[in-house]
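Data availability (excerpt). The following record was deposited with the supplementary files.
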Amino acid sequence: MSDSGVLDKYIGRIAEGGMRRTAGEPVDHEEYADDLGSFGWLRGVRERAMMLELRKKDGNILAVSYSWLERIEFDPSVGITLIVGGRQVRIMGRNLNGEVRPNVRLFEGIVRHRVPWVRQAVELALSKEHPAETVVESIG
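Predicted structure:
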């Protein structure tokens, strides 16, 4: 391995198209995340989101820093409760900890900083066609 190869290994990454992304550089989550309907999932095993976007169906977005998350609770009858800077934010819906793909679950993804965004469902009637699907009915 050449000296530049060793250097790239430890301080940078070569992204698609030959563009270098250095450690600490902001990540465009749309490029590095899969859209799983109700939430996004970062593809890279070592990728971690810095903030969690909570996207409401009315267009409002609340972004909270993962570093400010004090506690995360999952209760199937209530949903996911985030305590952020003393404020409570509740994500309600169905199958919030159901396996969307092998080893991919919304609650566990939030705990591991792998979820860059959560999106409230726009049309609940359409989402009822797939009862095993993770659906976010409300964020508040």
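Summary of structural features: The first strand starts at residue 12 and ends at 14.
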